[in-house]
Each structure stands twice: as structure tokens, then as C-alpha cells.
């Protein structure tokens, strides 16, 4: 009985398998006639017994869009089950219960290609990033994978561009590091990061950027911005702080140069020494040391003759070393560390180290005063500093320095006063403004004279016909045809009844009234009556000097003291003021007297000059000699011209040539020169036949000579 049951079940199993096989066959037959419902039903029932045939059939049904079961994602799911089952069968053929008559490797591959294509093209109908993401995650072996990735990246990048912010670009780069747009995204991201920090234009934000984004391509631009923002006022303090805080900034070199220029712009030795002491580690140290050394050295103009007979000018120092090669049409002496140079009718400025600070572009320049220079360019005047900044733009028709930091500026025919320090300017309604003497300056308006202070306030209205500067709170003015004296409150000190008035000297002022001369004191009291005669040299000798004044009476000259007492009688035909107790006087000829009216040098000379350093020049006929205060001749009458002694030296002329003598009346330079000019206490410029040289008294030798000078000298 038991054996019978076993046989029954075995036959039943065989019949079941046979039936299943018939069902698979029926399913595929139904599939051929597009009876998808029947085929699907059978495949679903048989999927566990015949997974390869069933999954293939189900995937095929769901991949066709001509039936209600079309679902490409479900088709792909059954394909994955099919692929797993197929791979399992290939690894263990014994698992296969029957022949795979309906499925083979090629059919599976074709099915896969169809599903990949359908899914890819379905996504193209309504492309979404999420759809492409799904496709790329599930269909990794699809031949459309690269295209899907490309489209996915393009859409994601376009989305990031639409958002146009740091977060979207960063998300794109993190999610799609292999996208073709990654470089473009990185560039945009870097730019957005830069702009985020740059728009604040704050050192705090820039410092944060430099710390967080050292590889950002805008890193250098931020470093530049840090430099610009740190030094926006271009002050010494800003450059100093910048270099301490950002010593490695690529702009540090420029900052050092700017700090150096501003710290030493006076070009005085002390400024270089302070810089050296404060910044011994500076890359400008050697330059500062050199310029400090040069600041003490005196420079002199030198020249070379050009092939066309002209000259090129440069500079040598006080040892005769050429410091600046002759290359300019003209040069002027150094002033405040700069010298004017000329090229092609234009002026510029050069430093002692040969550095051109201002290329020759100016039509006219003045000398430097207080670190400023008045310049003319394109027909207009302005003011520059030693850093090359226009302190006053070149827009005026004229500028004149009339006091420290105060300028007279001209526009058209009118002038105004500009106070540089106070940044103020008056209206352009004045004809002229004179140089300040003290707190007030003379100005003219409609041909009348008045006074203005340094703040631009008119202190005395323009009502006078003439005016001179205030001295001791007194000013000479003219009202109508007569002169008087006023104070700074415009109160009259001396009434307007004088036809002439002299300078203040020892608290007295000579006054002329109807060609008579008297003296007022500064309080306006007539202390010496109008009893003396006017003479043309009154302005030279009529002022009190050493308590005495030269006056004239009945055509003769004498001397009075400040009490009006006659101390030297009226006996001379000409008389000069006393100097060191000695005056030159003339009867028929010239001689010298002392303050006691004693003759100390006889009246035997055709002409004389006052004593200078103990000696005076005297002339007989056409030649000059020197005498001492005892009247003793120290030289013969051999000089065609003779100068006063200055610093123990005098220039004389013999036989048409200049010479240099000392106070022992010995020749330091013999009479062989066409000209001798004093440059300073030690240096003299000498010339022979239009060739120049420099000679040093202390060295008793030539320091420098122009080519051809020595040859011309030997010819003499």
C-alpha cells in the first residue's frame, strides 16, 4: 500500500511538471496573439517554478505599450529578477527543470536594450533631475547612461545658475564632482564667495576670506583690496600698521616704498635717520642710509659741451665727484632736497641720488617752500607736494606764496587769498595781494589799498591810494596826495599832511613836508621839527642808525642825535650813515670820520666804500686799494675793481682778470680768470674762456673742471 502511494505521488509530480511546461507554452502562445491577460496570469503562477521563462514573459508584457499592463519600471523590475535567475541557472544548470525553449542570452540582451531605451526616452518627454537620478541609479549598464548623466548634469547646473547663490553652486559641486560643468561651477562659486566678502569692503571680512579660502583665485585680489583699504588715506600711520599686520602681503614692497617716501619726504637728513632707527629691518634701509649720507653733501651744477656747441648740465659734490651725469638742458641749485632740471623747455625735479621725482612736464616752477612747489602746466598754475600730489589743481591763472601756507591765486583779472592749512579761500574780487608782513597783508581793489588778515578777513577796507606793510603796529599810507601813519585799528597816528615818509628806524620815522624834513616817533609826536632839507639819498641815510641820522641844511650835510642835537656840523658835501662808529664823508674828496667828527682817513680819495671786516676800499683815479681803520694802505692802487671782504676773502680785478685775495692781501687765485663767483664759504666757481671749474679754498685745489678748462687756463 505504501509503495503504491509513492508511485502515485511520483506520477502526479511528473504530470504537474508536464502541465507546468504546457502552461508556459500556453503563456507564450497567448503572448503571440497578444492575449496579455492570459499570458500574464500564467507567468505569475509559474514564476517560482520557471522563473527565467516567467520573468522574461512578465518583463516583456510590461515593456510593451500596447496593453493595459504597460509599466516600464515594472518591466525593469522583472528584468532584474530575470537576470538574477538566468545567472543562477548558468552557474548551476541542474536547477533548470526543462529546456529553455523561449529564452536565451540574446533575447535577454534585446529585452534589456528595449527597456533602457524606452525608459530613457520616457524621461526625455518630461525631463526631471530626479528622473535622471533614478535612471542613473537603476540603469547603470544602459548605453544611455552617459547621455543621461550629461543631461542630468546640465539640468542640475542650470538649476544652480538660476539660483545663482553660493549654496546651490556648492551643492552642485558636491553632488556632481565629475560633471563637465564642474570647472565653470567652481569659477562661479569662487566669484560668489569673493563678492560676498568683497561687498562688505571690510578688513574683518577680508581677513576671514583669506583664512577660509586660500585657494580661491580671487585671493590675490583680496590681498590687493586689503592693501587699498588699509592705506586709503595714504598716511604714514596706515602704511606702518599695514606692514606690521600683513608683512607677507604681496603689496608689502610697495607699502615700504610709500612709507619711506612719506617718512622722508622732507629729504632732510634727520628724516632719514629717524626712518633708519625706527625700521632697521626695512628693505629700504640701504637707500635710507645712502640718502642720509647724501643729505649733508653739497651739490654744484656742472656741464659738458655738446657737439652743437650747447651744454648739458648735471651735478658734482663738494669733493668733485660727479653725482648726476650731465644730461639736462639746465639745472638749478638744490632746494629742500630737490633740484630743478630742464629738458625741451620743460622743468622737472631730481633727487640727489639721481632719481627723477618729477619728469620735466612743467612750463614754469618756483623753488620749494615748506614741501610745496608752485608749478605751471598747460598754461595754468597749481601746487604740488614732494609725493607728486596736486595739493591745488592746476586751474589758476597765477599763484604766489605770500606767507607760510598762504597763497594769492589769480583767476582772470581778479585775485583771491587761499589759506592752505585752513582750506579757505576768499572771493575773487581783489586786484592784487602783497606778501604778508606779520599778521596783515596789503591788498588792492579798484586801485585802492587795504589790509587783510590770514583768515581772509578784511581788517582795513581798500580806501587808501598807497600803503606799506605794518611794522611795530604802524603802517605808512597815502590818502589823496598826502601820507600819514595808521595803526592796525585804522586809527590815525600821524595825520595826512606829509608829502613823503621814510622807514621806521630806532622808533623814529623821517617825514617830508613841503620839502622840509622832520622826525616823528611811533606815537605820532613830532620830536624833531621840519627844519632840514630834503635830499635824494634821504631814504638811504636819513634813517637813524646807531642813534644818529644824516640831515642836510643849506646844501651841507651834518648829523643829529635822537634829541635833535647837532653832533656833527653841516660841513660835508656828502655823508653816509654811521656803521660801527665810522662814516664815509666828502668835502672835495672822500675820507672817513668817526662819531666824534674826527677824521680817521684823510679826504684824498675819489671814491670810498664802508669798512667790511676791518678793511675799506678806496679809489684814486681809476684804480682801487684797501686801507685799514687807521687809514694805512694795505695794497697799492692796482685793482680795476675790488669787492668787500666777506669771510676773510675779497674778489678783485687786475689787468682785466679776476683774482681772489685773503686778509693778508695774498693771492689765493691769481688774476687769470674771466670770472670768480662765491658759491659758499669754501667753494668758488671760476671760469676761463667760457670754461668753468670749481675750486676749494680748504683744499687749495680744483674739485671739478669742465673739459677744456685746464687747456684754456694754461693758455693764460
Please provide the count of β strands.
45
How are strands sequenced across the largest beta sheet?
Answer: 4-5-6-7
Q: How does the overall form come out from the CA principal axes?
A: elongated
Largest sheet: 4 strands, antiparallel
Gyration radius (Cα, Å) is 54 Å
Q: Helix/strand-derived class? A: alpha+beta
Arithmetic mean pLDDT: 92
Q: Percent range for helical residues?
A: 25-40%
Number of helices: 17
β content, as a range? 25-35%
- Beginning-to-end CA distance, first to last residue: 165 Å
Low-confidence stretches: 1-19
Essential attributes:
elongated; 716 residues; four-stranded antiparallel sheet; 17 helices
Produce a short descriptive summary.
With 716 residues, the chain is an alpha+beta fold.
Explain this structure to me?
The protein is built from 17 helices and 45 strands. With 716 residues, the chain is α+β, with helices and mostly antiparallel strands. The protein has a domain of 111 residues. It has a 4-stranded antiparallel β-sheet, with no helix packed on it. A 4-stranded antiparallel β-sheet has the order 8-9-10-11, with no helix packed on it. It has a 4-stranded antiparallel β-sheet with strand order 12-13-14-15, with no helix packed on it. The relative contact order is 0.03.
Amino acid at each position: 500500500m505504501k509503495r503504491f502511494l509513492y508511485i502515485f505521488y511520483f506520477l502526479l509530480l511528473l504530470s504537474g511538471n508536464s502541465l507546468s511546461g504546457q502552461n508556459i507554452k500556453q503563456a507564450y502562445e497567448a503572448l503571440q496573439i497578444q492575449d496579455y491577460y492570459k499570458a500574464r496570469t500564467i507567468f505569475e503562477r509559474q514564476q517560482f517554478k520557471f522563473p527565467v521563462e516567467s520573468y522574461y514573459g512578465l518583463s516583456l508584457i510590461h515593456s510593451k505599450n500596447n496593453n493595459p499592463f504597460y509599466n516600464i519600471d515594472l518591466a525593469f523590475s522583472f528584468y532584474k529578477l530575470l537576470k538574477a535567475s538566468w545567472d543562477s541557472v548558468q552557474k548551476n544548470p541542474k536547477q533548470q527543470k526543462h529546456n529553455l525553449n523561449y529564452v536565451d542570452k540574446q533575447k535577454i540582451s534585446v529585452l534589456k536594450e528595449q527597456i533602457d531605451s524606452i525608459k530613457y526616452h520616457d524621461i526625455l518627454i518630461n525631463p526631471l533631475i530626479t528622473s535622471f537620478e533614478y535612471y542613473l541609479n537603476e540603469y547603470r549598464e544602459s548605453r544611455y547612461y552617459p547621455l543621461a548623466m550629461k543631461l542630468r548634469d546640465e539640468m542640475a547646473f542650470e538649476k544652480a545658475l538660476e539660483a545663482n547663490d553660493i549654496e546651490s553652486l556648492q551643492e552642485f559641486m558636491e553632488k556632481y564632482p565629475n560633471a563637465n560643468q564642474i570647472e565653470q561651477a567652481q569659477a562661479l562659486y569662487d566669484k560668489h564667495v569673493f563678492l560676498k566678502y568683497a561687498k562688505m569692503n571690510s578688513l574683518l571680512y577680508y581677513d576671514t576670506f583669506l583664512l577660509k579660502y586660500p585657494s580661491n583665485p580671487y585671493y590675490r585680489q583680496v590681498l590687493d583690496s586689503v592693501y587699498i583699504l588699509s592705506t586709503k588715506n595714504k598716511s604714514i600711520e596706515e602704511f606702518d600698521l599695514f606692514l606690521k599686520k600683513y608683512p607677507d602681503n604681496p603689496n608689502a614692497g610697495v607699502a615700504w616704498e610709500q612709507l619711506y617716501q612719506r617718512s622722508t619726504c622732507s629729504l632732510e637728513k634727520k628724516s632719514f635717520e629717524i626712518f633708519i632707527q625706527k625700521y632697521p629691518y626695512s628693505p629700504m634701509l640701504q637707500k635710507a642710509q645712502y640718502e642720509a649720507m647724501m643729505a649733508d653733501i653739497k651739490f654744484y651744477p656742472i656741464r659738458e659741451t655738446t657737439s652743437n656747441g650747447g651744454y648739458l648740465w648735471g651735478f658734482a659734490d663738494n669733493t668733485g665727484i660727479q653725482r648726476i651725469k650731465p644730461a639736462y638742458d639746465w639745472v638749478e641749485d638744490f632746494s629742500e632736497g630737490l633740484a630743478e632740471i630742464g629738458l625741451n623747455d620743460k622743468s622737472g625735479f631730481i633727487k640727489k641720488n639721481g632719481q627723477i621725482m618729477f619728469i620735466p612736464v612743467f612750463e614754469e616752477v618756483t623753488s620749494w617752500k615748506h614741501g610745496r612747489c608752485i608749478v605751471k602746466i598747460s598754461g595754468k598754475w597749481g601746487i604740488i607736494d614732494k609725493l607728486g600730489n596736486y595739493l591745488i589743481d592746476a586751474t589758476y591763472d597765477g599763484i604766489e606764496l605770500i606767507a607760510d601756507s598762504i597763497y594769492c591765486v589769480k583767476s582772470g583779472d581778479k585775485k583771491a587769498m587761499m589759506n592752505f592749512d585752513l582750506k579757505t579761500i576768499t572771493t575773487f574780487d581783489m586786484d592784487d595781494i602783497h606778501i604778508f608782513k606779520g599778521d596783515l597783508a596789503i591788498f588792492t581793489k579798484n586801485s585802492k589799498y587795504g589790509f587783510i588778515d590770514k583768515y581772509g578777513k578784511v581788517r582795513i577796507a581798500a580806501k587808501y591810494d598807497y600803503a606799506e606793510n605794518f611794522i611795530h603796529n604802524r603802517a605808512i599810507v597815502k590818502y589823496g596826495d598826502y601820507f600819514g601813519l595808521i595803526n592796525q585799528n585804522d586809527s590815525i597816528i600821524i595825520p595826512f599832511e606829509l608829502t613823503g615818509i621814510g622807514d621806521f628806524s630806532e622808533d623814529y620815522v623821517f617825514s617830508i613836508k613841503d620839502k622840509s624834513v622832520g622826525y616823528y616817533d611811533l606815537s605820532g609826536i613830532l620830536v624833531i621839527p621840519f627844519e632840514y632839507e630834503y635830499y635824494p639819498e634821504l631814504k638811504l641815510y636819513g634813517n637813524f642808525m646807531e642813534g644818529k641820522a644824516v640831515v642836510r641844511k643849506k646844501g651841507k650835510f651834518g648829523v643829529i642825535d635822537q634829541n635833535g642835537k647837532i653832533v656833527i656840523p653841516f660841513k660835508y658835501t656828502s655823508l653816509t650813515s654811521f656803521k660801527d662808529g665810522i662814516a664815509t664823508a666828502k668835502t672835495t674828496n672822500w675820507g672817513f670820520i668817526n662819531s666824534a667828527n674826527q677824521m680817521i682817513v684823510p679826504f684824498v680819495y675819489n671814491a670810498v666804500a664802508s669798512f667790511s671786516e676791518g678793511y675799506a676800499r678806496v679809489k684814486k683815479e681809476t684804480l682801487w686799494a684797501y686801507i685799514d681803520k687807521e687809514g694805512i694802505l694795505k695794497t697799492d692802487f692796482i685793482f680795476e675793481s675790488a669787492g668787500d671782504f666777506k669771510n676773510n676773502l675779497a674778489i678783485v680785478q687786475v689787468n682785466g682778470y679776476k683774482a681772489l685775495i685773503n686778509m693778508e692781501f695774498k693771492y689765493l687765485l691769481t688774476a687769470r680768470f674771466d670770472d670768480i663767483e662765491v658759491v659758499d664759504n669754501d667753494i668758488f666757481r671760476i671760469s676761463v674762456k667760457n670754461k668753468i671749474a670749481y675750486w676749494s679754498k680748504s683744499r687749495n685745489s680744483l674739485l671739478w673742471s669742465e673739459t677744456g678748462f685746464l687747456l684754456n687756463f694754461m693758455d693764460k
